[in-house]
Each structure stands twice: as structure tokens, then as C-alpha cells.
Amino acid sequence: MMIDCGEGTQLAMRRMRLKFVRLNHIFISHLHGDHVLGLPGLLSTMALQGKTGRVTIHTFPEGIEILQNVVNFFCREPGYEIVFEPVSPEGGLVYEDNALTVTAFPLYHRVPCVGYIFREKEKLRHLDGDMVKYLDIPVSKLHGIKMGEDYTTPDGVVIPNSRITHDADPSVSYAYCSDTQYDERVAKAVAGVDTVFHEATYIDADRVKARGRGHSTASEAATVALKAGARQLIIGHYSKSYVSEDQHLAEASAIFPNTLLANEGLMVDLL
Prior knowledge:
single chain; alpha/beta
């Protein structure tokens, strides 16, 4: 899965040795060039590398019309299926499978924009292998037990689930807050998420500029994470007017200590 697709996407993927053919979903936050103009080239390269199956691009109805024309022109015979799925600017469920949901929520930029929350569903409990073997539990009963059911032996004895299983691994969640000015509705939308990425284009000295351009400062990003009760914050999307991001990190960490600077190639453990 990928969120947004700027012009440097292919280069970044090559540097990180990510496999192009494994990409199946691309979630677009908004229709500004630095978030979508890498898409035609990426889809063409995936065709050259033998991508099969399907790639689903999630974007606004307006974006579907625009991007469909571009893709049809530059990637006419991809060898795989390219599907566009509409996303409402008001948000809502965008994707779901047996392990994960992806939900969009409104952001507050100069054009319609959404963020995305990725939530793992509750995981199955772990079986105690020794108990399963001791009780000679049929394979047909194991899935129900992992779901939390008790086990009833052939002679009618009920074995509590807690004696047969161990706690499931924790489910994790991640919120991506793309371009947006500070708004408490964002904090409410991502409340309870473990890890929040939030744009931090400017530092406090440029707060007026941030507001006028529909962006946030690092301290405002930290305030969102604090109000949301997040475990960790990642800030990024820095203005190129700064020589370094040291001040961004200092201002965000003063409000939310567990803050990381997003940089190309960064890998974060969500647990």
C-alpha cells in the first residue's frame, strides 16, 4: 500500500529496494502535483516489470476523471488491471479485508483533502500447543477457540478459553494527516490511533504563513498528537525554506516528546 505518489516515488522505491510488483493500493490525499504527478510513470514502470493482478487507486471523483485520462494515454496496455475507486471528501470507509480497514477523514487544506487511518482488526488468540495436544482437540474446533470460544470435551466438560490460549498480539493503527492547517477536528478524527504522521511544513515563527497556505507548524502537529492520545508522532512535509529540521523537532518535542522526523528511507515499528 502507498499513500500519495509524488514525482520522486520511483527513485525512493529503488533506493529502498521495494518491489514494484507488490504494490496493490495507492491512496491519494488530494490533487496537488507533489502528491500525484509520480503516478503515470510509476504505473508504466510496473507494467514494464511484469506486474499482474490489480492496482486500485483511491481518489476523489474529480481525480478519477483526470488521472484516468492521463493513465489511458501513457499506460495504454499495462498488462494488469488499473481500477479507480472514489473517495468522498467527507471521509468514510475506503478499504477493508480480513485483517485491516482503511478509513478516510477530512483535512483542511486549500483544496479538498483527506487523511487516512489504517487499523488492524482484532487478532486471533494464540493456541497453547501442549493443551491442544493434551485435550486432543479436533482441528475443526481450533479456529473457534482462537476466536475466543471455550472448548467442550466429548464427555461434556467445558474447558475455559483462557486455559487453552494466550493473549493475541496487539493490533496497531496508523494515521496519515496530509496537507492541512491546524484544526481540532483532526485530533478528534485520529483519537486513539497509535502512530500519527502529521505534516509540519513550518515552525512557529511562520505560523501566519502556515495558516494562509493551509499548512501546520510542528508544534501544531504535536498538539494534534497530544489531544488524540497517540503513542508516537512522525512529522514531515517540511518547507524547503529551512536549512534543517532541527527547530521543527525541538518545537514538536516540547509538546509531544515522542516525536520523530520523517526522512526518506525511515522505517518505523508501529508496535
